Amino acid sequence: MNATLRKLVLLWLSAPSVLVAQPAPDLDARFASSNGWIGADGIYSASLPKNRTAWLFSDTWTGEVQDNRRMHPRMINNSVGITEGLAPARFYYSTNANGKAVSLFTPPDGRGWYWLWSALPSGNTLCLFAARVERTAAGGAFGFRVFGTALGEIANPQEVPTVWRVRWQNLPEAWQTNNVFWGSAALHHQGFAYVFGYLENGGKGADFRRQMLIARAPGEKLNRFSEWRFYGSGAWLASPQAAEPVCPDVATEYSVTYHSVYQKFLLVTHDSFLSPTIVARLSDHPWGPWSDKKTLFTCPEADPSRGIFCYAAKLHPSLSDDQRLVISYAANANDMATVLNDNRLYRPRFIRLPARDLFNR
User: How far apart are CA 118 and CA 186, in angstroms?
Assistant: First the structure.
């Protein structure tokens, strides 16, 4: 091999792995409601009985859409969509005595609100993680803080969400000190329920980072916190303070799934805080080691000049199969008027990627 060719090969090997996902407007259209529910972020999903899928949303706009603008808007903190087959999603939230939209789930202690995170079937119930959030004095699009996580057990997930019976309990406060939170992602594997979280480094601006943490419990015992074990020093340990980062640069919300054909675990997240770039990493085990990141997609909505940013990327097993992977993300803006006047924002956006392009790279 001559020197020029050797240099080209070395450059190719050292370059970031870039794959090309494609927008999936047919899936976007299934969430294109123009009356009642008119957009949301979060966009987690979970399998339900009778081949249905629950779509778990955080902040949600209600009202009407006219000429690409949101009219009579009202924001609530969470809602749920249900899909079955190829039909459009049906959306559910609560209403108050005056008939106004209100959040489907509210904290029993009345403090702050819930943003819906990952969920796992557990026997006949559905276990649902929710971030506990409250306002701060900062105001604007980032005038909030996450201060804890709750676990909800839905006793009747076969029913419509407006009649779900949910028992909420907060994760122990001692687990969530020092900027540690649990429930960003979750999966079942070989008899265990694995729960992923994150550790914030406390940095500012470009120095701000989150790192992945992992815990597990016997598959049907997520609600028994004494059964949880935390991964650190290469072992599963009883102390939550023993948990150590297993992967750098994850978002608050991300997904970890297992692909049985390729026998790999797949992490999907944004590249860094509010990056428009969606990336993936692979591993043989839920706890890693994780591969170098592979770039999947750059969200076209991102526009710093308009204050538009993208976030919340995650993979959805119910829409994916052996050949194709389906990922969603959200687009938002610093200025509320921008969101209200552009109905293309603050809605689930989907992309597709051939599985072989990712796992065989």
Answer: 6
Query: How do residues 233-268 score in pLDDT, each as one tens digit?
Result: 999 999 999 999 999 999 999 999 999 999 999 999
CATH of the domain at 258: 2.115.10.20
- The reported pLDDT for the residue numbered 8 is 30
Q: Does any domain span residue 35?
A: yes
- The pLDDT, as a whole number, for residue 63 is 98
Sequence-separated (6 or more) residues with CB below 8 Å from residue 57: 40, 41, 42, 43, 78, 79, 80, 81, 116
Domains of the chain: total: 1
* pLDDT under 50: residue ranges of the chain: 1-16
User: Residue 206: which residues within 8 A CB-CB, separation 6 or more?
Assistant: none
Quick check: is 2 in a domain?
no
Phi-psi bin for 105: left (phi > 0), alpha (psi -120 to 50), beta?
Answer: beta
In a domain, 5, yes or no: no
Calpha distance 16→48 (Å, rounded): 38
Number of helices and strands in the chain (H, E):
4, 27
Asked, for residue 3, whether it belongs to a domain, the answer is no
Residue 127 to residue 120: CA distance in whole angstroms? 5
Nearest Cα residue to 41 out of 172, 133, 160, 173: 133
Range of the domain at 80: 16-359
